[in-house]
Amino acid sequence: MSRSRTTVGVVLLAAAAAAWSIGTFAQGRTGTSPDISGYWELPIDGRHIPPARLASRITPAMLRAEAEKSAKAIRWCNWVGMPTTMDTGRPLDVRQETREIVILAESPLTPVRHVYLNRTTHISSEIFDANTSGDSIARWEGDTLIVDTTGFEPTHGVTTIPGGGFRTATSHLVERYRLLKNGAMLSVTFTWTDPAVFAMPHSYEFRYQRVERGYEPRPYGRCDPFDAERAAFFEAAR
Amino acid sequence: MSPIDRRRAYSARVARSLAQAALLFAVCLAGCSAPAPAQRETPAATSTVPDLSGGWLRLDSEGSGSFDGTAQKYPPAALTPAGQAMVVRGDGRNVTPNGGNTAPHQAGEPYIVNNGACTPEGTGGSAIDPNSTAIFLLQSKDEVLMVREGPGGRHIHMDGRSHPDLTKLTPTLYGHSIGHYEGGALVVDTIGLPEGNVQGGGRRRPETRLTERFELAPDGKRLTITYTWDDPMLYVRPHTYQYFFERLPRESYAFETWCDSSDPTQRQSVVPPKQ
Fold this sequence. Notes:
The structure holds two protein chains of two kinds.
Chain A: H1 2-32, E1 38-41, E2 47-48, H2 60-75, E3 92-96, E4 100-105, E5 113-116, E6 135-141, E7 144-150, E8 172-180, E9 185-193, E10 202-210, H3 228-237
Parallel strand pairs in A: 5-6
Antiparallel strand pairs in A: 1-3, 1-10, 2-10, 3-4, 4-5, 6-7, 7-8, 8-9, 9-10
Chain B: H1 3-29, E1 54-58, H2 68-72, H3 81-85, E2 135-139, E3 143-148, E4 153-157, E5 176-182, E6 185-191, E7 196-198, E8 202-204, E9 209-216, E10 222-230, E11 239-247
Parallel strand pairs in B: 4-5
Antiparallel strand pairs in B: 1-2, 1-11, 2-3, 3-4, 5-6, 6-9, 7-8, 9-10, 10-11
């Protein structure tokens, strides 16, 4: 009787283990991946930005031209794009699904970032129109989300990169997203590679804090490029 | 987490519950006397959550893509005298350089499609009034995010919160939206929109309540949004019309166009060639 009970117990334990495995499998890949959805704010001490080592061909005049281009984009309320989207001074709304992750900055000047989880290659440059956000694809490696972006437009928006340098048509950005402090913090390490601009890959890290539940996104400040006071303000700053 | 994920997670939870029950049963057979009841999972009402995730393109079945033909078929709004008397500057969205006053355009004259500003106010359409640019919906547990191909986005709160007091709410293009699932539809309630026009000759103001029902066709490939505007001060009865959308292929991607407010030709849809 005792032996029979033990046998039944062993069989049921095996069944339990099998059911557990099936359950884990049913959760799928994203079921086991972290969910970075939520509102994230970059605090004043959340930036770790070492100076970039620029390629020898980069001159002060080239840097000035990029800075002026970026200033013009801001003056005219043009879309700023990457990398400024990730640091607008207001929280990011990040929403994760199986197909894609969308990153929306609380700003009227930042195009929405679409980060695709459902493909492993970039859209062919023959059909992809380069833009300020680029083409982003992503995959999970353990608890880290790796986002790979190419296809940047070199003349539109704010092109300057924190730490020095600027984005070009040959820029390649790899971001690594990882939750820290039991999900209360999101670390994003940005690594820009571009032989036309950098002597070596340029990396910096932003650490975002999760915004409390019930947060109300604030209305976008209106940016009117035709406002006379705005024009005077920027003219005086030149 | 998408509905598919939720369904997967639910399947996983059920499988784990079975495993736990089997484990307890096995342990019991091995000698326990009074097993604790297996912990019961509360099944989420996932079966009633429509899978709206992905890209949607508004259909124009009555015109060339300008939606003018479609707009003419909307039932006219039944306005109160106050609603009829309400004066709206433009559509409440544009920030035109001349203060919203535009003279009729002559034949051959280039005309303004948008106001030249690259902000959500300037580029035409809106998150509550989609035009020919695609919309993308992302469903998560506490929010449905609705974005278009451009800057800005609309947060539809799904966490059970209420609208803030209107006196503390700055009217915006997106208003303040709260939502819930009801009978397989996403129902969104919005207030706090600025004064403006509404399809079918309607009007809106911050106090006006907009209810949207997002409903999927049985095959999941078509989406209907039914708009209902209600405001006793403006409407004799609620004003209703529908938009229809087609689901974009799963492998499609969002476009990002470019806009330069400093470029005067940005405001022209047609630049006449020199004669």
